[in-house]
């Protein structure tokens, strides 16, 4: 299992200060939460497990998070920011809209492969957790981002006028996830999955592979 950053199993290796700052303690709790949410899932992870893995007292958990759900949301936010930073920092310049979409999806798959289980844990439906109005906070976040991008291209006449950018924007993250999971199930290469998804999206959006 890979994490977003190097992790500590506790204080035994001496690498954690005896009196960490508040920010350091929160980071350690989030690091521990990430490992446990990925390995065990939300329901099987208890606040005391997170505290123990972080090498702090159980009461310290509640100095930084109201409850386990708040900790999970902080973990999910960190995972989203890590993915978005990875995609932005590796994106090529001067790409057509078709190439931008393909590149963003390719980089998302690369990030997921480098951090097994991370995104799957981070997009857990809030109805499973037992809070919120339902749905995945991160899937909604990414849906809005894709919708905004599509809306800008629609206004510029790059994609078809028929495209409902709101609904399609929210559909794209789900398609990325489902196609990736299908590729893993049938042991297909990520390029095959990407080609299949891009063929569908290009046809639906009215994009050509080399359109400007």
Describe the structure.
This protein is mostly helical. It folds into 2 domains: about 1-65, Arc Repressor Mutant, subunit A (Orthogonal Bundle), CATH 1.10.10; about 75-205, Tetracycline Repressor, domain 2, CATH 1.10.357.10. Helix content is about 65%, strand content about 0%. It is built from 10 helices and no strands. α1 (about 20-40) packs across α2 (about 45-55) and α1 (about 20-40) crosses α4 (about 70-90). The protein is elongated and about 55 Å long. About 30% of the residues are buried. Residues about 1-20 have low confidence and may be disordered.
Give the overall average pLDDT.
Answer: 86
The total of beta strands comes to 0
Strand content: under 5%
State the shape: elongated
The residue fraction in helices comes out at 55-70%
CATH class of the largest domain: Mainly Alpha
Mind telling me the C-alpha Rg? 20 Å
Main sheet attributes: strand count, strand direction, barrel closure: none
């Amino acid at each position: 299992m890979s994490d977003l950053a190097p992790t500590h199993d506790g204080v035994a290796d001496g690498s954690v200060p005896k009196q960490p700052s508040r920010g350091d303690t929160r980071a350690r709790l989030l690091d521990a939460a990430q490992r446990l949410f990925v390995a065990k899932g939300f329901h099987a992870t208890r606040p005391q497990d997170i505290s123990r893995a972080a090498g702090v007292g159980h009461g310290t958990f509640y100095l930084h998070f109201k409850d386990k759900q708040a900790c999970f949301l902080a973990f999910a936010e960190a995972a989203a920011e890590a993915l978005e930073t990875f995609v932005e920092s590796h994106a090529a310049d001067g790409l057509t809209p078709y190439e931008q979409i393909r590149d963003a999806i390719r980089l998302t798959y690369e990030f997921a492969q480098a951090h097994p289980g991370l995104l799957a844990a981070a997009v857990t439906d809030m109805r499973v957790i037992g809070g919120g109005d339902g749905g995945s906070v991160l899937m909604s976040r990414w849906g809005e981002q894709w919708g905004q991008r599509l809306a800008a291209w629609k206004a510029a006449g790059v994609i078809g006028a028929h495209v409902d950018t709101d609904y399609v924007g929210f559909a794209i993250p789900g398609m990325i996830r489902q196609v990736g999971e299908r590729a893993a199930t049938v042991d297909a290469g990520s390029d095959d999955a990407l080609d299949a998804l891009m063929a569908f999206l290009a046809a639906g959006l009215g994009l050509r592979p080399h359109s400007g």
